[in-house]
Amino acid sequence: MNKQAIFNLSYGVYVITTWGDGKPTGCTANCAMQITAEPAIIAVSINHDNYTNECIKDKGVFAINILGENVKPLLIGTFGFKSGRDFNKFEGIEPLIKEMLPVLPDAMSYITCKVINSVETPTHTIFLGKVTDCDVLNDDKPMTYDYYHKVIKGKSPKNAPTYQG
Amino acid sequence: MNKQAIFNLSYGVYVITTWGDGKPTGCTANCAMQITAEPAIIAVSINHDNYTNECIKDKGVFAINILGENVKPLLIGTFGFKSGRDFNKFEGIEPLIKEMLPVLPDAMSYITCKVINSVETPTHTIFLGKVTDCDVLNDDKPMTYDYYHKVIKGKSPKNAPTYQG
Q: Which of B8, B49, B65, B119 is the best residue to mutate to test the A interface, defined by the most A CB atoms within 10 Å of its own CB?
């Protein structure tokens, strides 16, 4: 088995946001995909250990913030490599509020979702979200995971499904 | 709601293959994502109306064929816009056999999976597959869905989650 093959699946780079204990929180994710067109349903995969996972289970809603190629790399680092349990990831960021959810003003698009189903796997929860609102915020090009690795020289956080140990 | 936002999610271009009635069959898909790293589990989304959906349910196994940028566009058309119910999509193609599954020799990578769980949505089934084998077949660059649209000027089949009516 040559696991390099698995890394040839293509992804984008997203921040999944929701509400923590009265504060906005979120984490970087690259695994999001549309499941049905009408109604629009999107699946995201979030590690059990991520604070965002328990917050989505608690609140039943999340927003997908689609990052563009020109987003500040610091944003990916803040949301990908720190935990919302002990760090306010929104410090210095004034979130837009869309469908009562915190959205990153620097995202190139956002999609707000209401959880309609979820599936557990050994390490991750797949949340199925029905789209409640979405919009394009700027004309940046969506960042692909490949671009993130090759151009921004980014790494995968330990909790990512695509983590290479 | 500006649904253009949803089309800013990033995907690859894949052919999901399995066995039909004694013959290899498959369909084009763009929605596949890794869910967990260890064990490696991958989710794919297949429309209820696709023959491949019922074949995967019947056989419990599937292969993800990752297409590269230099794959023959005809291959995408054959697997995306015809039905395996009344058309032998493998006509003229000698499949590789990997873990007893038919694999396209022109794929740049393949991943064979055993279904361990599935989730129904109004139009699609999400199959969760545990990876049983995978390999890189050539050094082509994985085709992104964006590349397929912009460079190959491809369209979405009616059954795709990303179909724009």
A: B8
